[in-house]
Structures are given as structure tokens and as C-alpha cells.
Amino acid sequence: MKVQFVILLAIISVKCSFSQEIPKSFSLDEAIAYALEYNYSVINADREILDAQKQKWEIIATGLPQIDGNLSYFNQLKQPVTLIPGEIVGGEPGSFLPVVFGQQNQVNATATLRQQIFDGSYIVGVQATEAFLRYSQNNKEKTDQEIRKAAIEAYGNVLLAQETVNILEKNKATLEKNLYETEKLYENGLGDEESVEQLQITLSSTVSALKNAIRFEDITLQMLNLIMGLPIENQTILTENLDDLVVKQIDFNLLDSEFNMENNVDYKLVANLNEQRYYELKLAKSKALPSLNAFVNYGASAFSNTFSFFESQQKWFAASTLGFDLTIPIFSSLNRSATTQRAKIAYDQAKTQLTEAEEQIRLQLEKAKSDYIFSIEDYETTKSNLNLAERIEKKNETKYFEGLATSFELRQAQIQLYTAQQDYLQSMVEVINKKTELETVLNN
After folding, report:
1. What angle, rounded to 10 degrees, do the helices at 28-38 and 193-228 form?
2. Are 210 and 283 found together in one domain?
3. What is the β-pairing status of strands 236-238 and 24-26?
4. pLDDT at residue 68, rounded to an integer
5. Same domain, 317 and 234
6. How many structural domains does the chain have?
7. Cα separation of 368 and 372, whole Å?
8. Do both 358 and 212 map to the same domain?
9. What SS3 string covers 365-400?
10. Hey, CA dihedral for 244, 424, 233, 209, is it positive or negative?
11. CA-CA distance, 101 to 314, in Å (whole number)?
12. What percent of the chain has pLDDT over 70?
């Protein structure tokens, strides 16, 4: 029986580990959607909205009826003595009789209902919570934008790393073939030792770059997993192709998209600050208004020389009070005036910051458009340069084995090709990233 149980546990363990190792496949849109749901910052931003909603009710509740209960017990271990004239009980004139009033034990139970009738700061506080909730929602939108941008960049970096590995592996295979043929020529006395050494240097550099690219590919995958809220060791498969993805990212119609300043998230956040300063000014002004509160309480008291308060014959004496509290600010040695003036200055500063933000966002939009156009132009240029570099390298390789070019000239052509390859790959990623920046400004 124990053996069967152990076998069952082993089977379950194998199944669980197998299920955890199942790779997850993502297109770019799927990766973005996954990150916007499971990224750690997005999850906490959702919690901040929930916290703002609770804070709003916390402020509102302060103006609603409040009921407090109070229960107190007193035991006069040594009761106070009062002297009364002895004449009251037939004593000599001028004499005094010590008397103890009350009983040793006392219990008081009271319930009090309080209701705020008017308080200017309460009204402003409720309005301010609405503004804070809007800020939390806009901050969530800002977080979503940043995670979307980070997911796109991370996705592109993985594709870039994968393409780099593929290209370097092809370059390595070509160099190994060239080196082998050159060594054979040298062994047969048809080549020189320097040509072999030149190719060995190029191959060594390529192998080193390949090893680094493989390590970088692992790091970029881990970064993408982290942004998507996955364990960094998760086996993630990307279904997009870098070439096809770049073609989809080229959209000149985006440059003609209508721009609405009020849709920009950075503008919304600065407007939230402006709104916050406005309510702080209103709050400072409201401190000069009177506040009115009402209260009613009901209670009962019991007295006894022994602790007999739970016995049925114990007498309780009820009492109730209705009242109002009116507080009128009269003189604060100009404290309220200074507070109000400071709030006014902060509000004026916020309005200036809002104007500055508008201009900065307009400049940011123009720069994003310019960068996007340049990235597309640079992509076309590097693509053309890569084709030229491939033809030049192929011609020099042919010339080299025909004895019409030196090993130095072949190495130069190879280095030029490798540089063109990296420039081309980087230009593709730039198209993706610059489009994302433009979409972020447009909030598209």
C-alpha cells in the first residue's frame, strides 16, 4: 500500500513539473495584453484605485452619524468625607459632623449620537477625494502605457537577440569554411600564413560575439517574462518575426492622427495636480467658516456599596442630553491668512506648470513624429546598405580565392558586412520603439 502511494505521488509530481514546463507562446499583441493584466506594477496600480475608493468613503463617513458607547466603573476605595454643621442634627453650635455622601461603587453606561450639520472643510474634503480618485485612475492609465511600452521594447529586444544569434551563426559557418579552404591553400603552398591568421582573428571575434549574443538572448527573454508577470525562468516562445513585425509598424497615417491634449496622460496628471492645489486653496478658505454639530446621548447610572449591578433589584437612573456645538473662528493672529496665501501661491504655481506641460507635450509630439519618420528612413537606408555590403563581401571573397584580393581587403569587407547587419537589425527595433513613443504621446 505504501509503495502504491509513493508511486502515485511520483506520478503527480512528474505531471505537475511537466505542466509547469509547457512553453507559453505570445504574439506582440498577446504579450502586451498579458502584461497589462499580470504585470506587478499594473496589479498595484489597480489596488491604488481601490484604496482611493476606500479613502473617498472614509472622508464621506466623517460627515454621517457617528455613535459612540461608553461604559465606566468607579470604586471609591476611600470615600471622601464632608463636614456638615452639627446644629442640623441637634449638636452644639459651631460643631461639625463628618458625613460620607454616595456609595462606594458606581457604574455609568452612555451612548452618544453625533451628527455634523455644517463644516466647510468637510465639503471641500469630499470634493478633493473625487479629484484623488481621478488621479489614481489616470496614474493607472500612465502605468498601463509604461508597461505597454516596456513590453513592446522587451519583445523587440528578444527578436533582435534571436536574429543576431542567427546571423552570427551563419557568419561563423562562412568563416569556418573560408578558414578551412585558406588553410588548405597554405598547406599546399598556394597561400600565405597572414591570410590564415587574418581569418582566425575574424573567426575568433565572431565566436566571442556569438557567445555573448546567446547569453543576451536569455537575458532579454527573462526581462520580457518579468514585464509580463511571469517567472523569469518561464519558457516563452515568440510567434512574431522581426521583419514582418517591422512592416506592420510602418504606418504613415499615424502621423496625421488628430491630437487632443486632454487625452494625453501626462497632461491629465498635471491637471490633477492643478485640481488638487485648487481644493487645497478652498480648504484653507473654509477654515474661516463656522462649524455646527449636534449630539444626543442617553445613559444610565447605578450605585451600590457592593458590586450588585447584575442583580435584578439593582436600580438604574436614566439621563439624556440634547445639544449643539457651534465653533466660530474669530482671531488666529493672521495664521489662517498666511495659510490661505500660501495655498494661493501653490495654486498659481500649478497653473503655470500646466501651461508649461502643454508646451512640453506639443514639443514631445513633434519630436516623436520626427523620430518615427527618421527611424523608417534609417530602416530603408540600412536595408539598402546591407544588400550592398553583402554583394561587396561576396565579391571580395571571390576575388580572394582567385588571388585578386588580399586577406586584409576580405577582412575589411567582412567587418563592413557585420556592421551593416547590426545596423539593420537595430534600425528595425527602432521603428517599433519610435512608433510606440508616438502612440504614447497621442494616447492611441
Report:
1. 50
2. yes
3. parallel
4. 94
5. no
6. 2
7. 6
8. yes
9. HHHHHHHHHHHHHHHHHHHHHHHHHHHHHHHHHHHH
10. positive
11. 19
12. 95
DSSP E strands: which ranges in 86-203? Answer: 96-99, 105-118
Range of the domain at 397: 25-63+119-289+331-442
Which amino acid, one-letter code, is at 115? Q
What are the phi and psi torsion angles at 230 (to 5°)? -100, 160
The residue that leads in pLDDT, 100 or 261, is 261
Residue of 59, 236, 39, 67 lying closest to 157 (CA atoms):
236
Exposed / middle / buried, residue 284 (Cβ in 10 Å: 0-12, 13-18, 19+):
buried
Backbone angles phi, psi at 205, to 5 degrees: -65, -40
Is the Cβ–Cβ distance between 237 and 224 less than 8 Å?
A: no
- Which of helix, strand or coil describes residue 343? helix
Mean pLDDT on 81-107: 81
Cross-strand bridge partners of residue 26: 238
Please answer whether residues 223 and 229 qualify as being in contact, where contact means their C-beta atoms are separated by less than 8 angstroms. no
- Whether 324 and 279 share a structural domain: no
31 CB burial (10 A radius; 0-12, 13-18, 19+): buried
Q: Cell digits for 184?
A: 588548405
